[in-house]
Amino acid sequence: MTSEDIEFIRNKIREHHNWFGSSLPMIASENITSPLTREAVGSDLSHRYAEGDPGKRFYEGCKYLDEIEIKTQELATELFGSETADVRPISGVLANYAAFDALADYGDTVMSLSVPSGGHISHSKFSAAGLMGFDINEFPFDEDNLNIDTEKMCEMIKELEPELIIFGASVIPFPHPVEEAREIADETGSKIMYDAAHVLGLIAGNRFQDPIAEGADAMTASTHKTFPGPQGGVILHKKQFDKEIRKAVFPGTTSNHHLHHMAGLGVTLAEMKEFGEEYANQTIKNAKKLGKALYNQGCHVLGKDKGYTKSHQLLVDVSENGGGATIAKKLENANIIANKNILPWDDVNNTEEPSGIRLGVQELTRVGMKEKDMEVVAELMSRIIVEGEETKKVKEDVREFSDKFNKVHYCYDGRIEAYQFSEI
């Protein structure tokens, strides 16, 4: 017998699992972990502390934890081609904050992408970059190409000589001009950081740009978007910054890192070594196909002249269909999970009623969907967005369609159902 409060929570977890198992999860910042990753996350490591570095802990009982952390760090540097890595940050924002602290000083001049243009809030005055007191200067943005204006960016770097140039974004359908910035940064003495949170899994599969090879001094990321690991963060960087970064992670931003998530990260890194290229390739194929199919169904998908996307993401302008907030809620009522999103021309202060929605296909890809399935997804979505059909009938069709995709792909053991709740 369990308490009513516990049963309430357990029932809500069951309901959530059942809901997502009969839905189309298309939040661009989410994914689903493999069975072996879940095994690690659910282990005794979730109970333990391991402050400090392997071999130099402030607690006893860490000898196996040390070996796991060293292996995870080795896997990260191997997969991404970095000189070294820190796998301890417990979130992407904390990874960013630690990198900011190591690469620049309070009040320094930096360059980053504005939030309406797709930049992450942690790169802005509202979050981590603001807490660092940075003098934040926004990249010039080309709305037609949905990307940073490279020529104007280079001029801006020469003029400002920023201490730090921050690439990466929450909306990143196309690669950022890292190589072009590196050429100028070598002249101005600027450092380059790339926040790969959204595209880390595509980078792991060699299907997006390679920021480290292109000249980034550090690449930060969360580990649970296109990279299908447990929630957490990672910093991949040059050895010359290792002392400062490790100090910024511990004791700077983290006391005990989450050991069960770190072990899960290690498992996912190993799986991505084996399956990452196939997964990333299919993810991008699916995104391009969905963009074209939605456009053909009458949706205003941005980026048509550039093939819609080169990542997992799509942006759809639904301002003439009721707006982002209204459409996102209608889609949710039909078991299609996506988020409202401001577009480059929107007011940054009007995030509640933006013009667009943002879509990601990485989780649909993880459960086995291919290009032909994107045609079905587009048809289901357009019935809500374009035709304004009642959500009840669409929801029934979504459930029938999604029930066919209940295994995790691109991993070593896909026997467990994707959205199965493991009850005790």
Structural summary, described in words:
- With 424 residues, the protein is an alpha/beta fold.
- The protein has a domain at 37-270: Aspartate Aminotransferase, domain 2.
- 43% of the residues lie in helices and 13% in strands.
- The chain contains 15 helices and 17 strands.
- It has helices at 4-21, 35-41, 63-80, 92-103, 128-131, 150-160, 178-188, 200-204, 211-214, 242-253, 259-296, 324-333, 362-366, 371-385, 391-402, and strands at residues 24-25, 52-53, 56-57, 84-86, 109-112, 135-138, 141-142, 147-148, 164-167, 191-195, 218-222, 233-237, 300-301, 313-317, 336-337, 339-341, 356-360.
- Strands 4-12-11-10-9-5-6 form a seven-stranded mixed β-sheet, sandwiched between helices.
- β5 (109-112), α5 and β6 form a beta-alpha-beta unit.
- The radius of gyration is 21 Å and the shape is globular.
- 52% of the residues are buried.
- The model has no long low-confidence stretch (mean pLDDT 96).
Question: Which helices and strands occur, and which strands form pairs?
Answer:
Blueprint: H1 4-21, E1 24-25, H2 35-41, E2 52-53, E3 56-57, H3 63-80, E4 84-86, H4 92-103, E5 109-112, H5 128-131, E6 135-138, E7 141-142, E8 147-148, H6 150-160, E9 164-167, H7 178-188, E10 191-195, H8 200-204, H9 211-214, E11 218-222, E12 233-237, H10 242-253, H11 259-296, E13 300-301, E14 313-317, H12 324-333, E15 336-337, E16 339-341, E17 356-360, H13 362-366, H14 371-385, H15 391-402
Parallel strand pairs: 1-15, 5-6, 5-9, 9-10, 10-11
Antiparallel strand pairs: 2-3, 4-12, 7-8, 11-12, 13-14, 14-17, 16-17
Helix pairs in contact: 2-11, 3-11, 4-10, 6-7, 11-14, 14-15
Main location: cytoplasm
Enzyme class: transferase
GO molecular function, one term: pyridoxal phosphate binding
